């Protein structure tokens, strides 16, 4: 990757980066100045859970007990709505007081020279702010949103205004000398209890200390450190009070529970024993271990019987198949391992009979009556064997069904053993637990009677509420750094997204990535309308210099010819508007100023453009007239003595025809080119776009060089794939590419300047020489 090139690509947009940085850094600076800083106050408390465990109802050993320092219950208590609403009411958090200063921040204060007396319940207070000022006559109260002003006469707080949810009077300290407060202005914010509770929960954090078990860290964030510390102190006080009350309730409930539980225990124990007895009777279980051994052995035996039966079925099936396949002169297997002695004997008799038939056959012919009789007897015996085997197989199948049923019953009984064991285990466990509990209950009843008389708090304050005066919000360094980073990343992301989504051509590299082996012949700069036609032999304009470089590069592409015949240069593009006519026009002029005789032909019959450069009417006769009628001489339609160069002749497209493709494919055009080669050094063809119509592809084989015009910041990269396909199919040959419309001020990827500007050198005079000039 060329890092310098990538840097310059983005550095080109430096004004946007500067603007983004100015906006975001400035906004962050103003935000830091406007928003009052938020501070964090914290306290550390320790709750001794071991003290609570001195008199539990049921003793739990260390292996069964969960974490004794788990403070989840205390955390849930402190963060519950019921607990915090008491804090809101005791601290009167529905009212917030600020001292108004003539700056962009307001300071929170707690001592104000007046007292607000709500005329409605705190639960019904509106969310509103008031500005209050003390003057000689009383109070001036302003509602900033509606700009409504209320005047309160006197300082005694007896006057009631219907639109205000409170009465106001001077505090006892301020009443001694009200004039001390005439210059100050105050702001009071009101909110109902529900909103104050919500804000308190959002600002409060209660977490266990990871480094010390049984320790809770309480944190409160707010703009007033003093108020935050008071809130934490009130929370600790209420938590301690709540823990003591809960202990007292526990002791009182413990004694009542123990008495009732001991009374009912005998009934519960008898009920559990009755359940166990009834369950064992229903399931025919005298003793569980014996039951397990018997049922397991029964299942194993039935499984063995079933496997032996299935084996006999397989052997019988095989024997039947083997007997059926055997020929009349083949012996039958005598040992199929079938547990049927009669069938074994029948097989032996058959094989013996077969041997007798073979002996007879050795002494006589097959038509011997004795042999025939023996063969008939053997057929009968073979059928009898098959019948016996099939009967045996049928018996085995019936037995298999019975075995499967018995095995299923045995499996079901064995599978039910864990369930029965679990049920009996639960019953026994429950009974054992009841017995242990009974003993524990008697002991705990005595302990609860003794411990309930004295209740001690197990909460200790390790660190009193204190404030970290390093503001946690907004943090100047973090905000400024974040705004700087965001100010840099936002324009970078937008520009990167633009580059990522941009599919236009901006450099040679964009072309080489798609078509690597096609030469770039030149770059035509973007010029204004006044410079469009500034191209003569002596011109030093950008366009003149660029087309001279182009002409030189094209000459290297032209094939060497032994005959003195003109070369055909075809200009085309992918779509309309890429400047092929513009490039063809200037290339023809440049070649003609080099003492070359040039014929410029406009072959874009559908949308001709060349007539605009020469000031010729579009309806003048031209190429279409010759192509439509070969009897006409094409030379009669050529414009000579063009003002740009005496060596340049032009054949315009003429009237737009209804059938341009048919005209260009007849032999007239090829004849024109062959005749023109004899009289001109170069024939420059301004053709139609290849990806819009097929006109150009019909005669592209006549060109010696094909110049494909791609426009900077206009031609889509996907169009180059189409060009590549045309080249691979040899529909376009000897192709070179021109990049047109390059903006020299904004383009990246070009390290050259186009053209030269010659002017007289200005000699800088010294100051004492300027007066003599």
Structure description:
The protein has helices at 3-11, 14-34, 49-52, 72-78, 81-91, 172-175, 193-203, 225-282, 288-325, 341-363, 369-451, 476-501, 508-512, 542-557, 580-592, 610-614, 623-628, 660-665, 667-679, 695-699, 718-728, and strands spanning 38-47, 95-100, 107-108, 114-118, 128-134, 138-143, 148-153, 166-170, 185-190, 204-208, 215-222, 459-473, 520-525, 567-573, 598-602, 648-651, 682-686, 705-711, 735-742. It has 773 residues and is α/β, with parallel strands linked by helices. Among the domains are: 3-35 and 474-501, no CATH class; 40-245, no CATH class; 508-742, P-loop containing nucleotide triphosphate hydrolases (Rossmann fold), CATH 3.40.50. The chain is built from 21 helices and 19 strands. α5 crosses α7 (193-203) and α9 (288-325) packs antiparallel against α11. It is a multi-pass membrane protein. Keywords: ATP-binding, Cell membrane, Membrane, Nucleotide-binding, Transmembrane, Transmembrane helix. Residues 14-90 form the Polysaccharide chain length determinant N-terminal domain. Its main location: membrane.
State the helical fraction.
Answer: 40-55%
Principal-axes geometry comes out as: flat
Q: For the CA atoms, what is the radius of gyration?
A: 55 Å
Strand coverage percent: 15-25%
Oligomer: single chain
Give average pLDDT, whole number: 80
CATH homologous superfamily placement of one domain: P-loop containing nucleotide triphosphate hydrolases
Q: Quickly give the structural class.
A: alpha/beta
Low-confidence stretches: 60-66, 748-765, 767-773
Report the CATH architecture of one domain. 3-Layer(aba) Sandwich
Count of DSSP strands: 19
CATH class of one domain: Alpha Beta
The third-level CATH topology of one domain is: Rossmann fold
Distance between the termini: 55 Å
Total count of helical runs of at least 4 residues: 21
Describe the sheet with the most strands: 7 strands, parallel
Report strand order across the widest sheet: 13-19-18-14-17-15-16
């Amino acid at each position: 990757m060329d890092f310098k090139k990538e840097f310059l690509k983005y550095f080109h947009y430096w004004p946007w980066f500067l603007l983004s940085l100015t906006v975001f850094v400035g906004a962050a600076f103003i935000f830091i100045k406007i928003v009052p800083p938020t501070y964090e106050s914290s306290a550390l408390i320790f709750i001794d859970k071991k003290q609570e465990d001195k008199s539990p109802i049921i003793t739990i050993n260390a292996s069964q007990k969960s974490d004794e320092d788990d403070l989840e219950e205390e955390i849930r208590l402190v963060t519950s709505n019921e607990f915090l609403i008491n804090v809101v009411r005791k601290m009167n958090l529905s009212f917030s007081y600020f001292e108004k200063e003539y700056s962009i921040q307001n300071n929170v204060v707690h001592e104000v020279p007046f007292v607000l007396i709500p005329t409605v319940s705190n639960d019904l207070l509106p969310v509103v702010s008031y500005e209050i000022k003390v003057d000689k006559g009383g109070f001036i109260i302003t509602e900033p949103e509606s700009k409504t002003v209320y005047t309160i006469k006197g300082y005694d707080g007896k006057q009631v205004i219907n639109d205000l949810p409170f009465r106001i009077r001077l505090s006892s300290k301020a009443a001694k000398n009200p004039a001390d407060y005439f210059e100050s202005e105050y702001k009071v914010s009101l909110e109902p209890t529900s909103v104050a509770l919500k804000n308190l929960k959002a600002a409060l954090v209660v977490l266990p200390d990871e480094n010390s078990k049984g320790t809770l860290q309480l944190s409160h964030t707010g703009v007033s450190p003093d108020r935050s510390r008071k809130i934490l102190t009130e929370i600790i006080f209420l938590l301690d009070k709540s823990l003591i009350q809960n202990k007292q309730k526990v002791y009182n409930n413990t004694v009542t529970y123990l008495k009732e539980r001991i009374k009912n225990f005998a009934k519960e124990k008898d009920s559990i024993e009755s359940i166990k007895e009834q369950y064992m009777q229903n399931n025919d279980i005298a003793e569980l271990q014996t039951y397990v051994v018997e049922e397991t052995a029964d299942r194993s035996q039935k499984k063995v019987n079933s496997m032996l039966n299935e084996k006999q079925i397989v052997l019988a099936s095989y024997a039947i198949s083997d007997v059926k396949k055997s020929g009349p002169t083949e012996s039958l297997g005598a040992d199929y391992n079938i547990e049927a002695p009669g069938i074994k004997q029948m097989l032996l008799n058959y094989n013996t009979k077969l041997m007798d038939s073979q002996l007879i056959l050795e002494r006589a012919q097959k038509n011997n009556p004795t042999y025939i009789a023996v063969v008939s007897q053997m057929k009968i015996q073979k059928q009898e064997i098959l019948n016996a085997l099939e009967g045996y197989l049928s018996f085995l199948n019936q037995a298999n069904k019975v075995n499967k049923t018995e095995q299923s019953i045995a499996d079901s009984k064995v599978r039910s053993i864990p369930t029965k064991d679990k049920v009996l285990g639960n019953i026994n466990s429950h009974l054992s637990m009841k017995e242990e509990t009974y003993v524990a209950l008697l002991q705990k009843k005595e302990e609860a009677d003794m411990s309930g008389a004295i209740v001690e708090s197990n909460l200790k304050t390790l660190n009193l509420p204190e404030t970290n005066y390093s503001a946690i919000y907004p943090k100047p360094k973090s905000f400024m750094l974040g705004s700087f980073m965001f100010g840099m990343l936002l324009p970078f992301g937008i520009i990167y997204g633009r580059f990522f989504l941009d599919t236009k051509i901006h450099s040679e590299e964009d072309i080489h990535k798609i078509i690597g082996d096609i030469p770039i012949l030149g770059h035509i700069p973007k010029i204004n309308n006044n410079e469009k036609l500034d191209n003569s032999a002596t011109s030093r304009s950008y366009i003149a210099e660029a087309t001279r470089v182009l002409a030189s590069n094209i000459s290297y592409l032209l094939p060497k010819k032994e005959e003195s015949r003109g070369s055909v240069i075809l200009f085309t593009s992918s779509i309309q508007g890429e400047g092929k006519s513009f490039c063809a026009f200037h290339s023809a002029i440049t070649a003609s100023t080099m003492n070359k005789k040039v014929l410029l032909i406009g072959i874009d019959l559908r949308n001709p453009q060349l007539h605009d450069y020469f000031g010729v009417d579009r309806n003048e006769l031209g190429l279409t007239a010759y192509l439509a009628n070969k009897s006409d001489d094409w030379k009669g339609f050529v414009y000579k003595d063009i003002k740009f160069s005496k060596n340049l002749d032009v054949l315009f497209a003429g009237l737009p025809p209804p059938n341009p493709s048919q005209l260009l494919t007849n032999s007239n055009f090829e004849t024109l080119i062959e005749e023109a080669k004899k009289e001109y050094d170069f024939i420059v063809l301004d053709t139609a776009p290849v990806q819009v119509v097929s006109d150009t592809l019909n005669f592209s084989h006549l060109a010696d060089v094909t110049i494909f015009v791609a426009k900077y910041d206009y031609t889509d990269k996907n169009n180059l794939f189409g060009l590549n396909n045309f080249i691979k199919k040899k529909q376009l040959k000897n192709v070179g590419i021109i990049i047109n419309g390059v903006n020299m001020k904004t383009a990246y990827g070009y390290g050259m300047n186009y053209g030269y500007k010659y002017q007289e050198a200005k000699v800088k005079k010294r100051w004492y020489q300027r007066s003599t000039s």
